[in-house]
Amino acid sequence: MEAILFYLTATVAILSAFFVTKCRNPVNSALNLVTTFLCLAVFYVMLESPFMAAIQIMVYAGAIMVLIVFVIMLLNLGLTVKTRYSHGLATSGFLSALVLLITTYMVRAGEATGIGGDVTSEVISSYGHTELIGKAMFVDFLLPFEIASILLLVAIVGAVILSKREV
After folding, report:
1. How far apart are CA 80 and CA 103, in angstroms?
2. pLDDT at 114
3. Residue 141 has what DSSP assignment?
4. Which domain holds residue 68?
């Protein structure tokens, strides 16, 4: 039963990710991206990580997608029809198939790095997901977390300045 759910979710995720790039309307692309994010949340639940699934839904499928749709509406991208360019389809299709084959081989061959981590199922059940993620984020990786927040702030200020129009 779990395998059926996995393959069904994977099929929906792949199709919606494909339609993100193929839809002519940017709003439809954004809605397909929401579907892809929801499928990723289902994968997190299947991996027994409900906290990450909830964060995936709240942050990405919720807040980030609202911002993307807001920018689409602000820039009025829904009215412009993009022209299709097919000269790179064969090359990109070949490279995508090659990456898929290499990834499939690496996953089936064994662990990606060959190194096991310190966090096992017993550690997760004794501490909990939220405590382990919080400790890693605010103790072990505090500096990268703060740098990422500063970069996001700079990106927001830059987006506001770039979207300002002359009155």
Report:
1. 37
2. 61
3. T
4. 1-79
Tokens of 37: 């994010």
Q: What is the CATH number of the domain that holds 68?
A: 1.20.120.1200
Q: Are 26 and 20 in contact (CB under 8 A)?
A: no
Residue 16 CA from chain centroid, whole number: 12
Domain count, the chain: 2
Q: Is the dihedral of CA 84, 86, 87, 91 positive or negative?
A: positive
Complete DSSP assignment for 8-60 = HHHHHHHHHHHHHHH-SSHHHHHHHHHHHHHHHHHHHHHTT-HHHHHHIIIII
Q: How far apart are CA 89 and CA 96, in angstroms?
A: 10
| Alpha-carbon gap, residue 164 to 130, rounded angstroms | 39
Whether residue 125 lies inside any domain: the answer is yes
- Which stretches of the chain drop beneath a pLDDT of 50? 78, 81, 167
Helix (H) / strand (E) element for 76: namely: none
Of 52, 79, 106, at which residue does a domain stop?
79
64 and 155 in contact (C-beta within 8 Å)?
no
User: Would you say residue 70 lies in a domain?
Assistant: yes
Are residues 60 and 124 part of one domain? no
Long-range own/partner contacts, residues 82-85 (CB < 8 A, 24 or more apart): 82/24
What integer pLDDT is reported at residue 52 of this predicted model?
86
